[in-house]
Each structure stands twice: as structure tokens, then as C-alpha cells.
Amino acid sequence: MPDRVETEILIVGGGPAGLSVASSLPDGVSALLVHQDREIGVPVRTSGGCWMSDVARLGIPTELAHPVNHADIYSDHEHLSLDMSSEPVGVLDVTSLYRWLASQSKAEIRCATKYLGSRREGDRIVSRLRASGQEYEVISRTIVDASGWHCAVLNALGLAVPPTRRGIGIEYEFSAPTHDPDRAVLFFGACVKTGYGWAFPTTSGSLRLGVGVIEPVSNQSPKVLVQDLLDGNALERMGLPHPENFHVNAGILPSVPYDTQLVYGNVVRVGDSANMATPTLGEGIRICIEQGRALGLALGQRSAPALSQWERAVRRKLALQYRIGFEANRRAAAYGPDDWDRSIARMRTLPSEDLLRFFRNDFTAKMIAHRGAQAVGRRLRKALGGA
Ligand SMILES: Cc1cc2nc3c(=O)[nH]c(=O)nc-3n(C[C@H](O)[C@H](O)[C@H](O)COP(=O)(O)OP(=O)(O)OC[C@H]3O[C@@H](n4cnc5c(N)ncnc54)[C@H](O)[C@@H]3O)c2cc1C
Question: Does ligand 1 come within 6 angstroms of the Cβ of 283?
């Protein structure tokens, strides 16, 4: 291994964001992608929920997503049966999807390689990497932080720190031959305070049963919450099988307000390191792929205006939507079990299209106006001394 490697673009992180940047770089751009795990797509740190419309739009092979048309949503005492046939969910085969993205990479991919830090040398960035116990340096024109919640590059350069408010989740994946493969479950309330739980059927006939909570709003360990779930009667009530011979997936994602700055000269961030997962459900893969690909194209133009244009386009698409979604996230994190009962009862009165849009964090102008009016009403009631 030479002590110094030169490349135009260094991408840190081989998740969906980094791989998507690498996949859309034009020919002739030299790039290196480093990934600290031994393999792409392993271990799995996400539950892979997506939407079949996005699977088609992003050109993801359909065999990598399992379509689901029905969801049952539970709180402690309420239940909503949701027909999603107008907007079916797609549960992704995460490992295969990430490998598929990697197969399109225009960058050289080095796994089992950890990014350690960077310094600026003139208009270049010198980064330190470690592989097989050996350190070496990479000199690049641009560096992309696609390291997920670690924000490894921005943190090393003193541009940002990893988020302190984070979603942490754990999931048990197990064979579930008796579970209806067209049925997903979401649950809220006493067993997952500040967060939610899910059960997603997959392409391989298994079920992913998980819970996620927001730290530090909650100090409960998701592992303990899953155990409590298994020990209680909630699974039976929701018609879910008990996990046996399960495999554990676990992960962390940021849960902070969206920050519109993505470009810091020749340092750029994308994906979870830029807090791009939706604030409503914490769904990030489709956004990483879309914005990662757009960033790869912008980087290929080798100009600062192209990067600024990309940053503005992402802001136009996400900033307002995420502000509204984050407000819902903040309020829901403070909900108690009774609030969830009321909330699920209220959801039953909404058209399924509106509910699905809410879950997608995709608010229409009418929904935004309605939420604005509700907020004004709340402020007025407060000012007049009401609740
Ligand atoms: C429990 C849970 C459930 C989720 N469920 C869903 C879901 O259903 N649907 C959905 O769309 N999204 C979901 N998400 C969110 C989704 O997983 C993320 O938004 C997405 O993975 C972000 O992709 P990324 O490429 O930005 O970061 P990551 O997927 O985190 O990838 C970054 C990679 O960079 C590597 N890395 C970090 N630091 C270094 C370093 N110093 N050197 C080298 N490599 C490094 C890491 O090992 C990591 O693999 C979930 C997240 C969690 C935690």
C-alpha cells in the first residue's frame, strides 16, 4: 500500500448515500470510496421500508423489494386498518440493494478501510485512512461525507458534531411462514415511548420485528423494549408471531432539525450525515439514493456553482417538508399512551391518501395550510389562557 494516494474525490461511507454518489459520477472522474465494514450491505442497520412507487422511479430492480398493500396500526387501545393499495410499501432486501448500487460504482471501493481524519493543504484535502492495521494518506480535490450519523468528515474538520438527538433501533428478523406477507404492522404507545415499533414482511419470507426510540428523550434501551414486547401479550394482540432463531439488525440515525448547509467549499455531506431521513418515520434510503445520484452528477461538473445548485435543489425539496415533519416528530416524541389512542382514533377519520402522505413526509399545500391553521389556533388558545 503506498503511503499517499491521489484521487479527485474521496467518498467516506459505503451506505446508500455514498454508493449512490459513486454510481452517478461521470466516466473520467477518479474517485475512491472507503467503507469501514468488511462488506457492502453487511451488517444491516436499517429495516428497509420504502414505497413501490420510489422503487420504480429510482430504477431499483423490483425483485429487491417486497410489496405490501395493507398495514395495521395499533396503539394500546385503538386499531386502524390501512389500505395502502394506492401507494404500496416496498420492503427492501437491504444487502442486495446496497450490492446492486455498488455494482454501478464508478469509484474504486475499499472495504475494511476506516477514515480517520483530514487536514487542508492549500485547495486539497489530505485524509488519513487505516486498513489492515496500516495507515496511509489520500489527497483529494473534494471529500464527501456519507458516513451516516457519525458525520466522520465534518466532525474531523470541525464543521459539525454528530447529532445528540438520535433515533436508535433494533430489529429481530426471523422466518415467519404463518404471517400474511401482504400485511405490515406499526405500533405506538406504552411499549415504545417516544418512538414506534414495526413488523415488515420481506422478500425472503421472513419478518422484521423492530422498535426504535429517540435518545435522549427516552433513556430506554431498544433491546430491553423488544424483550418486554416478547414477554408481554402485545404480539398476540397484534396477530404477530413470536421470533425464534432470529437475527438481530440494529442502527442509529439522526433526529434533529434539517440543516440546509450541505456544501462547505470542497467538503460536501449527503445522506444521514446531512440528516436527510424523513422526520416522520426516519425513512432515508430513497432520499439517499436520489440525492446521492444528483450529487454525483454535480461533482462530475467540477465546479462550485454546480454544487451550490445541487444544495439549493435539495433545500427546495426538503426544507419546508422537513420543518413540518420535524414538528410532528417532536410532538409525537412527547406523546403518552393516551395521546396515541387519541391519535390513532383521529387517523381513522382521515383519507388513507393523506395518512400515507404524512408517513411519506410528503405534505400537500392543503395539508401545510391546515397544519399552519392548527398551530395558530394552538398559539391563540395559549395566549387566551386556554390549554
Ligand atoms: C433502526 C433503523 C431503521 C430504519 N428503517 C428505515 C426504513 O425502514 N426505511 C428507510 O428508508 N430508512 C430507514 N432507516 C434510515 C436509513 O437506514 C438511513 O437513512 C440510511 O441508511 C442512511 O444512509 P447513509 O448512506 O447516509 O448512511 P449509512 O447507511 O449509515 O452508511 C454510512 C456508512 O459509513 C460507514 N462509516 C461510518 N464512519 C466511517 C469511517 N470513519 N470510515 C469508513 N466508513 C465509515 C458506516 O459503517 C456505514 O456503513 C432506518 C434507520 C435505523 C437506524
Answer: yes
Picking from 207, 242, 203, the residue whose alpha carbon sits closest to that of residue 65 is 203
211 lines ligand 1 (CB under 6 A): no
Residue 112, in any domain of the structure: yes
Q: Tell me: the pLDDT tens digits for 108-142? A: 999 999 999 999 999 999 999 999 999 999 999 99
Euclidean distance between CA atoms 371 and 374, whole angstroms: 5
Q: Which residue is closest in CA terms to ligand 1's atom 38?
A: 147
% of the chain at pLDDT higher than 70: 95
User: What residue has cell string 404477530?
Assistant: 240
CB 271 within 8 A of CB 185: no
The verdict on 178 and 210 lying in the same domain is yes
Among residues 282, 301, 328, the one where a domain terminates is 328
pLDDT at site 192: 87
Q: Supply φ then ψ for residue 132, to 5 degrees.
A: 50, 40
The finding on whether 289 has its CB within 6 A of some atom of ligand 1 is: no
